Amino acid sequence: MEYIRVTKENLEKEHICCAISNNKDVQVSSKKAWLADRFDEGLVFLKSTERGKCFIEYIPAENAWVPIKAEGYMYIDCLWVSGSFKGHGYSNDLLNACIEDSKEKGKKGLCILAAAKKKPFLADPKFLKHKGFIVCDEADNGIQLWYLPLAADAEKPQFRECAKHPHIEEKGYVLYYTSQCPFNAKYVPVLEQTAVEHAIPFHAIHIESREEAQNAPTPVTNYALFHNGKYITNEQMNEKKFLLLVNA
């Protein structure tokens, strides 16, 4: 397998793996706009030269859009290998590339979000454990922070206090989201329209800066749905899934 690093220079012509290839599609344009602003902050997007979901996206933890304390670490936004790419060792290739890059940059280690049981759009805990990652913190909603130390004296990363006990005061359905995930550009408006049509109390909060993300009331910032103050899920929803949840 050959890999290519997406940069400012080739961003417009490269397929970004997790969304359709048409640059005019709102999902693609929103994600690429978000990426373009992150490259100067040290973000790395390494992907297969073939089209499909086979890539890793990581950034210095100080610049990560998650509420963690992990100075000197590299934070993995996403490691995604699926479909026909699974089972060929590509996850190992991508993670190893991240590890080597982090060592060259003098990082203390890597960290990533997961859960004790695999959740949608989060890393597979079995794979992380196999690769030597360890749980270093856990929020009340079961979202865990895993880390792989690269230095013997590396201090463990941890969640910021605002994310350890995910809860908000606002009633109804409240969605926190960022433009990091391309699908949000399509599905958040779908939920907003569905809520209007069915008179469902719903408020979408678009996190638009690193500072906002690092002070969010949830470990997962790219998509976190609350209901009457309680965290519900990080799984993105279409109209059908949302109505099933509301009517459950």
Descriptive report:
With 248 residues, this protein is of the alpha+beta class. The protein has 7 helices and 13 strands. The chain has helices spanning 26-38, 90-104, 125-130, 161-164, 184-197, 210-214, 239-246; strands at 3-6, 44-48, 54-60, 68-69, 73-81, 109-115, 134-138, 143-149, 158-159, 173-177, 202-206, 223-227, 230-233. It has a 7-stranded mixed β-sheet. The radius of gyration is 18 Å and the shape is globular.
Walk me through the topology.
Blueprint: E1 3-6, H1 26-38, E2 44-48, E3 54-60, E4 68-69, E5 73-81, H2 90-104, E6 109-115, H3 125-130, E7 134-138, E8 143-149, E9 158-159, H4 161-164, E10 173-177, H5 184-197, E11 202-206, H6 210-214, E12 223-227, E13 230-233, H7 239-246
Parallel strand pairs: 5-6, 10-11
Antiparallel strand pairs: 1-2, 2-3, 3-5, 4-9, 6-8, 7-8, 10-12, 12-13
CATH level-two architecture of the largest domain: 3-Layer(aba) Sandwich
What profile does the largest beta sheet have? 7 strands, mixed
Please give the number of β-strands: 13
Rg result: 18 Å
- Full CATH superfamily name of the largest domain: Gcn5-related N-acetyltransferase (GNAT)
Percent in strands? 25-35%
Tally of domains: 2
Estimate the mean pLDDT confidence: 94
User: Helical segment tally?
Assistant: 7
Provide a quick synopsis of the model.
The protein has seven helices and 13 strands. The protein is an alpha+beta fold and 248 residues long. The chain folds into two domains: 3-160, Gcn5-related N-acetyltransferase (GNAT) (Aminopeptidase, 3-Layer(aba) Sandwich); 163-246, Glutaredoxin (3-Layer(aba) Sandwich).
